[in-house]
Structures are given as structure tokens and as C-alpha cells.
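Lecture notes, unit on protein representations.

Consider one protein chain, 190 amino acids long.
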Amino acid sequence: MADKDKDKEKIKKIVKKKGAKGKELKLKEKIKVLEAKLVAAEDKILRTHAEYDNYRKRSFKELADTRAYVKADTLTPILNVFDHFKMAVVAAEQTENMDVIREGMKMIGNEFSRAMEDFSVEEINAVGLQFDPKIHEAVAKEASDEIEEDFVIKQWKSGYKLGERLLQPATVVVSSGPEVEAEDEIEEEE
């Protein structure tokens, strides 16, 4: 019986060893699979980073190209106006006739107006309108009997808008209302 018990113990040890080795083999296989997955994931990450870097560089180049094309499209109408201006300067140097010079300046003004229309730039004419700090820049206030307080009397410089975007506010003089005489002021103070 002791031999049977010894044999059972040996069999249990062998089963345990084989079972342990079986588990060890399964774990080693799992480790190999996980290592392969890790290598694949690292490769995928590296490729994704490379693709993103290439995308970023390509986007930057496309943006730079777009800016260059926009500049070229913008400058073309302005170059036409500049050519007319140079012709007007030459004509002004060669003639004493102010009518010719005036006519040349009108032509240049018309060219500028066409260029502004091509760009959809809208001029802000503020005289007679209520002062709006969003589109007007007040540089002075003057008394006026004709125009009520907080309305624009004069415009020193035009303002411009591109759609809803303000490019330059109109530089204006705003009415402070009718001029108050000095006697009225003294009576009010008393």
C-alpha cells in the first residue's frame, strides 16, 4: 500500500509538472502574441505620426500657396490703377493744362472704384448719419445749428468695410448740437 501511495504521489507530481509546463507554454504563447501586438501598435503609432507630420507640412504649403494666389489676385487691379497713375504723372509733367490733369485724376479715381468693387469693399460715407463708434472714429466735436447732437457733421477720411468686417473706420467730426451762447451759460450758472 505504501508503494501505491508512493506511485500516486509520483503521478500527482508528474501531472502537476505537466500541468505547470502546459500553463507555462500557454503563457509564453500569450506573451509572444502580446509582443507581436505591441510591435504592430508601435508601428501604427509611428506611421500615424508620420502621416500627421506630412499632412501638417502639406497644409502649411497649401496655405502659403493660397496666400500667394490671393495676393496676386488682389494686386492685379491695383497694378492697373498704378499704371494709370504713372501715366498721369508723366502727362502732368508735360502739360500745363489743368483740365487734362483733372481728367486723368478722375480716370484714376474710377479705376480705384472699380478695383474696390472687384474686392467687394464698401465705402462708409458718414455725413448726416448718427455717430456709431463701431464704424466711426470721432476726432472732434463741433457745434452745429443744422445737425443735431451726436450726428456726423464732416468726414475727414472715408471708412471701408469688407462684408461685415470693418477695414477702416470713417474719421469724422460729430455735432455737439446748437452752439450755446455765453450769456445763456452765465444765466444757467446763476
